[in-house]
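Postdoc handover notes: sequence design on the structure in folder B. Input tokens:
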């Protein structure tokens, strides 16, 4: 009888291992077990595997997994020193292909994590009676994590959910059982979102008794509800999106930062009151860095010096009102900046939202923060957008204004444009801009440069003059070339060729 072995990353693994869509690679620092055998045998074993799942998820947070889609949109300009980092996806010209490094990473790291989630879900019920309760919680976490990965994959590789075409629009392969030999075709957008909902339903059952807490470093029922809100907004079930967002808003567990000190606690020291789920981070283990905005070093003549690859556009600078706490916390024109061999101070603003937590560096700040994939601020935005779309103007205004008041921003009516602008102001740099623009069916016309920065920015039709149509095919990232070669059942997204 042929023995089939399965592999799941152990908690000792430092990084997630790349795996192809058919999941046929044996990961380094992994645990092998024979199919049908008992993977989870002791509490220590269960804890290690559970930590391995959470580590797989952590590997997908911040760094390139947020930066790539962010610089594809209209918020940032590439400096002359950016060295073509994220160049193909920033320019979305002939350089952006199915071999793009960031596209391949987004696909392979997510599927590597999904492989781990699938194996654990299949094994979680085959445990001794004394482990059943804890294994059920860990299984709920795995369902939540898998739903998150599929939602992110759908937002990047599939079309925006449209009820009239979702059952024919292609999305990503749907793999819920680990099979080394499988060469899955792409599922439809409807099929993938149906699976996301099913996983969230399973997570909600398993995690029903796991109460949420500020900065929880693992999934809770509150995290499940927050992801439900994202899901329902994507599928245009506005009543449910607002309902789930308000489960979190109305509970009062999570508080919006409303002073400069609270903003610093939130976005510098990782000690704020907004995170529904804040992924574990430590100096020893590190996190993905978001240093492209701030590359920082010490200079004998100028002290702290920044060398960013990207600067915020003039449109970004202009959208914040005087006194907005976010502008004061996330943008700076007082620091020394070295670009193209020249020092600048006071000529333009840099983006410092992810400069880094000093506790996560042993020398200079390196753009490392504790990732915060779900926050209460996003729930206010989801509620406002959903309520406005459903025609509940008063509720939409109340939620939008609550966020604006906390941030000391101008108070506005809850029009579509104002809500969309608030999304941009609040989530800039977090990797949500592309999914928002895609959901709204919008493109953009140019990335106007800050006047004082024009001489140190790349310019032209693929840079500051970039025009990105609402139906631009780049909204659907290409299926990675490696996957297309090894799996002939895959069909490429339009515009990229086969």
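Designed sequence:
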């Amino acid at each position: 009888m042929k023995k089939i072995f399965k592999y799941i990353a152990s908690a000792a693994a430092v990084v997630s291992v790349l795996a192809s869509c058919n999941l046929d690679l044996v990961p380094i620092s992994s645990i092998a077990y024979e199919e049908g055998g008992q993977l989870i045998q002791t509490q220590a074993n269960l804890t290690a595997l559970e930590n391995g799942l959470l580590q797989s998820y952590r590997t997908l947070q911040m760094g390139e997994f947020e930066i790539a889609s962010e610089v594809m949109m209209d918020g940032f300009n590439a400096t002359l020193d950016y060295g073509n980092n994220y160049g193909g996806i920033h320019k979305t010209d002939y350089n952006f292909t199915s071999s793009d490094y960031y596209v391949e990473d987004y696909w392979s790291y997510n599927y590597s994590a999904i492989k781990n989630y699938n194996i654990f879900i299949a094994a979680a019920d085959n445990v001794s009676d004394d482990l059943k309760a804890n294994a059920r919680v860990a299984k709920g976490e795995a369902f939540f994590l898998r739903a998150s990965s599929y939602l992110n994959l759908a937002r990047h590789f599939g079309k925006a959910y449209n009820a009239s075409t979702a059952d024919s629009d292609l999305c990503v392969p749907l793999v819920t059982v680990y099979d080394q030999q499988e060469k899955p075709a792409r599922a439809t957008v409807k099929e993938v979102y149906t699976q996301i909902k099913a996983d969230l339903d399973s997570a909600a059952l398993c995690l029903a008794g796991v109460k949420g807490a500020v900065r929880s470093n693992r999934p809770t029922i509150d995290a499940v509800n927050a992801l439900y809100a994202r899901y329902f907004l994507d599928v245009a079930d506005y009543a449910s999106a607002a309902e789930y967002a308000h489960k979190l808003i109305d509970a009062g567990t999570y508080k919006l930062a409303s002073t400069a000190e609270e903003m610093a606690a939130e976005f510098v020291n990782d000690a704020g009151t907004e995170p529904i789920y804040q992924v574990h981070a430590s100096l020893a283990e590190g996190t993905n860095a978001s240093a492209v905005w701030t590359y920082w070093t010490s200079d004998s003549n100028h002290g702290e010096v920044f060398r960013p690859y990207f600067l915020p556009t003039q449109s970004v600078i202009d959208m914040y009102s005087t006194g907005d706490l976010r502008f004061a916390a996330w943008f700076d024109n007082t620091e020394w900046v070295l670009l193209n061999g020249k020092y600048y101070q006071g000529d333009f603003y840099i983006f410092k939202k992810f400069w880094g937590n000093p506790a996560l560096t042993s020398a200079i700040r390196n753009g490392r923060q504790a990732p915060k994939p779900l926050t209460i601020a996003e729930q206010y935005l989801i509620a406002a957008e959903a309520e406005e779309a459903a025609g509940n103007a008063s509720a939409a205004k109340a939620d939008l204004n609550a966020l604006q008041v906390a941030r000391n921003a101008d108070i506005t009516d809850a029009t579509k444009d104002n809500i969309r602008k608030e999304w941009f102001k609040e989530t800039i740099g977090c990797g949500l801009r592309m999914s928002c623009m895609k959901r709204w069916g919008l493109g953009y016309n140019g990335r106007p440069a800050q006047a004082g920065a024009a001489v140190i920015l790349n310019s032209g039709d693929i840079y500051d003059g970039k025009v990105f149509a609402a139906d631009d095919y780049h909204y659907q990232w290409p299926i990675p070339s490696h996957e297309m070669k090894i799996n002939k059942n895959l069909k490429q997204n339009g515009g990229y060729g086969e």
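Context for whoever picks this up: The first helix runs from residue 43 to 58. Don't rerun without checking with the PI first.
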